[in-house]
Amino acid sequence: MAGKVYLVGAGPGDPELLTRKAWRVLQSANVVLHDDLVSQEVLRVLPPSAQLVNVGKRCGAKSISQDEINALMVQLSGEGKLIARLKSGDPLLFGRAGEEMEALRRAGIDFEVIPGVTAALGAAASARISLTDRRHASRVVFVTAHREGGTGLRNERHVAADTTYVIYMPGHRYAELAAELQAAGIAAEVPSAVISRATTKDETIFRTTVGKLADCPAAASPSLIVVGVVVGAGAEINVQTREIDDTLNEEVLQLALQHPYHDLNGRGGVE
């Protein structure tokens, strides 16, 4: 009997941000092939019955190739297994889902994509940044710094003023990115924020400006940079975050006890 592959978005890190459909599939999967950047919090709620395989690819580290991942999905689904290909954030945004879907189509494997909360939205929510505040920004541009030749922001010179930029996978190349942003016409005084491990207990938010981005302390992966006037507007909001978080977590826990897909007896650790 043929299996099936689900390309599942794990969201930015908080397991409570998994969609109900993602949760249901993960509870049923025989094998979970997960990226290295999927949070430990998400991995801990997977059922003990699922086989977890880390197929992450980290810059500069020797690891499994994309072709090997494609072949593994085809092999396991050919054995009749239900495969969850678990990706940080959303599978269709900087997640190599295009290559994997193409490989599955060629092999005649049934597959489905389950979207997730992408890192930009999780980070913006944590930092209280409205990416499209109508007073400041009418455009949002998602780019990745993990490519040859930079982010490709040079073409933004004439439209940068009312745009919010979210730079995925910046690494620690803050000085290079600051230079590229300014070359694209984004002024040195424009606010920016480096947000690391958004929505998790290890989250950090460092607010600065484009001109001072090079002085930002190195942030742990996964991280991203948000650039635009909206970052400064968000900094003016003062809320008691801990009280809000504690209340929300208690409410969610109570709902979890009633949730048909919520198994509180998940993994105590990860393999």
Computed structural class? alpha/beta
Ends apart, CA distance between termini: 28 Å
Radius of gyration: 20 Å
CATH class division of the largest domain? Alpha Beta
Strand order of the largest sheet: 3-2-4-1-5
Helical content class: 25-40%
Using the alpha-carbon principal axes, give the shape.
elongated
CATH architecture of the largest domain: 2-Layer Sandwich
How is the CATH topology of the largest domain named? Methyltransferase, Cobalt-precorrin-4 Transmethylase, Domain 2
Could you walk me through the main structural features you see in this protein, from its secondary elements to its overall organization?
It is a single chain. This protein has 271 residues and is an alpha/beta fold. It folds into 2 domains: 4-117, Tetrapyrrole methylase, N-terminal domain (Cobalt-precorrin-4 Transmethylase, domain 1, 3-Layer(aba) Sandwich); 120-235, Methyltransferase, Cobalt-precorrin-4 Transmethylase, Domain 2, CATH 3.30.950.10. 30% of the residues lie in helices and 20% in strands. It contains 8 helices and 10 strands. It has helices at 20-28, 40-44, 66-78, 97-107, 119-127, 174-183, 229-235, 241-256; strands at residues 4-9, 31-34, 51-54, 82-87, 110-114, 139-144, 163-168, 191-196, 204-209, 223-227. The protein has a 5-stranded parallel beta sheet, sandwiched between helices. The protein has a 5-stranded mixed beta sheet with strand order 6-7-10-8-9, with helices on one face. β8 (191-196) and β9 form a beta hairpin. α3 (66-78) crosses α4 (97-107). It is elongated, with a radius of gyration of 20 Å. The model is unreliable at 237-264 (pLDDT under 50).
